[in-house]
């Protein structure tokens, strides 16, 4: 059997592959829609159109190898795997031998010998690379020190679903609708501001949004430790994304002309000892109406955050206000993770010629 395709960062995927994952997410969301309806509304025409989403995980198990806490990613993976007809097996760091009595290499081979995919949330990115090196089945990054690719798929799906909220460039431009065919609404090129720490979530944005035609404006504190690590910047340059990224230290400058303003926690999991210094360094970085008004954001700007959120990063007025897309964004973790499980874990080994169906160069 051929080697599986792993998914460690969106930098490894082409634009058509990213769009394919988004379309699949949207289709799975639609196919699963009857389950989302309130009790009693599944009647008449709706009942006749009841469909199952792809059952590509039937009789298959995805190991959730999580060495860090999670709400969204875990719930999305567990509920998504069951909708695809399979099972997610949660293996927290307290449950298994990994990291105490057993190496990453041996764990990858053993877990991959019994499960059909590994969804791994790790500390250092090298751990998920090591898993991928030795796993006989696909490994998907559920968050590492460097990247958080499934989060950015959910962010993109959310932006496409809310494309109508962004004033079109041409007054007569309308979201594309094709009868009977599920198409993502066309999204005009956006200016996306990120105000906060250069961490895993931002890194996958940097290698993805510019390739989809969006401009990025980023503000991080002056200390070079808040800039993207060289390994990330190398991928930004390799993918020719650098020219679409403005980077400075002033959050007000960063939100200039922004259609979307995004932030993340200032203290990522594992950085708790640096909390006091970080709160000091991020003074003035809280996303507020005032910051965006003074900075000259597009008056219709929208707010996004991967969650979990703390008040220091964004105040309640913005977070719970009409600009906020944070909860649809969280819901979309499920459909995008389902698409990843479906295409990369469920279907990768189904071709009769032994080639993975989901191939890097065959989309
Ligand atoms: N956004 C995100 O990854 O959330 P969790 O840490 O709760 O999975
Ligand atoms: N940057 C955050 C993302 C959490 C989803 C962290 O790594 O903790």
UniProtKB/TrEMBL annotation:
Domain spans labelled Aspartate/ornithine carbamoyltransferase carbamoyl-P binding: 6-161
Name residues in a coiled coil.
none
Under InterPro entries, the record lists: Asp/Orn_carbamoyltranf_P-bd (IPR006132), Asp/Orn_carbamoylTrfase (IPR006130), Asp/Orn_carbamoylTrfase_sf (IPR036901), Asp_carbamoyltransf_Asp/Orn-bd (IPR006131), Orn/put_carbamltrans (IPR002292)
For the biological process aspect of GO, one term held by this record is: citrulline biosynthetic process
State the top-level EC class.
transferase
According to the record, the signal peptide region is none
Instruction: Output the Gene Ontology terms for molecular function.
Output: amino acid binding; ornithine carbamoyltransferase activity
Q: Which UniProt keywords apply?
A: Transferase
- Where does it sit, as one GO cellular component term? mitochondrion
Q: Which domain of life is it from?
A: Eukaryota
Residue stretches making up the Aspartate/ornithine carbamoyltransferase Asp/Orn-binding domain: 190-343
EC number per UniProt: 2.1.3.3
Q: Which PANTHER family match?
A: ORNITHINE CARBAMOYLTRANSFERASE, MITOCHONDRIAL, ORNITHINE TRANSCARBAMYLASE, MITOCHONDRIAL
Q: Into which family does the record put it?
A: Belongs to the aspartate/ornithine carbamoyltransferase superfamily. OTCase family.
Q: What is this protein called?
A: ornithine carbamoyltransferase
Q: From which source organism is this entry?
A: Roridomyces roridus
């Amino acid at each position: 059997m051929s080697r599986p395709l792993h998914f460690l960062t969106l930098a490894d995927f082409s634009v058509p592959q990213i769009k394919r994952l988004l379309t699949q997410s949207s289709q799975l969301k639609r196919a699963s829609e009857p389950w989302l309806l309130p009790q009693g509304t599944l009647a008449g025409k709706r009942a006749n159109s009841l469909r199952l989403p792809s059952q590509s995980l039937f009789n298959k198990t995805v190991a959730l190898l999580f060495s860090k806490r999670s709400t969204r990613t875990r719930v999305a993976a567990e509920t998504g795997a069951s909708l695809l007809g399979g099972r997610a097996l949660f293996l927290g760091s307290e449950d298994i031998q990994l990291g105490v009595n057993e190496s990453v290499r041996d764990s990858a081979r053993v877990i991959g010998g019994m499960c059909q995919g590994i969804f791994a949330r790790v500390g250092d990115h090298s751990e998920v690379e090591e898993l991928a090196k030795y796993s006989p089945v696909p490994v998907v990054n559920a968050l590492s020190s460097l990247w958080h690719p499934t989060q950015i798929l959910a962010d993109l799906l959310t932006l496409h679903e809310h494309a109508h909220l962004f004033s079109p460039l041409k007054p007569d431009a309308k979201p594309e609708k094709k009868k009977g065919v599920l198409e993502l609404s066309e999204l005009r090129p956006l200016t996306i501001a990120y105000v906060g720490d250069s961490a895993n979530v931002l890194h996958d944005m940097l290698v993805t949004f510019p390739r989809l035609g969006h401009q990025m404006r980023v503000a991080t504190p002056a200390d070079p430790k808040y800039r993207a690590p060289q390994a990330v910047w190398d991928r930004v340059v390799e993918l020719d994304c650098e020219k679409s990224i403005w980077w400075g230290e002033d959050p007000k400058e960063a939100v200039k002309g922004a259609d979307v303003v995004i932030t993340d926690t200032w203290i990522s999991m594992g950085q708790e000892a640096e909390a006091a210094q970080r709160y000091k360094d991020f003074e003035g970085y809280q996303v507020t109406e005032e910051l965006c008004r003074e900075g000259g954001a597009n008056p219709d700007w929208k707010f996004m955050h991967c969650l979990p959120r703390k008040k220091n990063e964004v105040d309640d007025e913005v977070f719970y206000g009409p600009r906020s897309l944070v909860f649809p964004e969280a819901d979309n973790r499920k459909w995008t993770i389902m698409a990843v499980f479906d295409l990369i874990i469920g279907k990768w080994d189904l071709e009769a010629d032994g080639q993975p169906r989901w191939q890097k160069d065959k989309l």
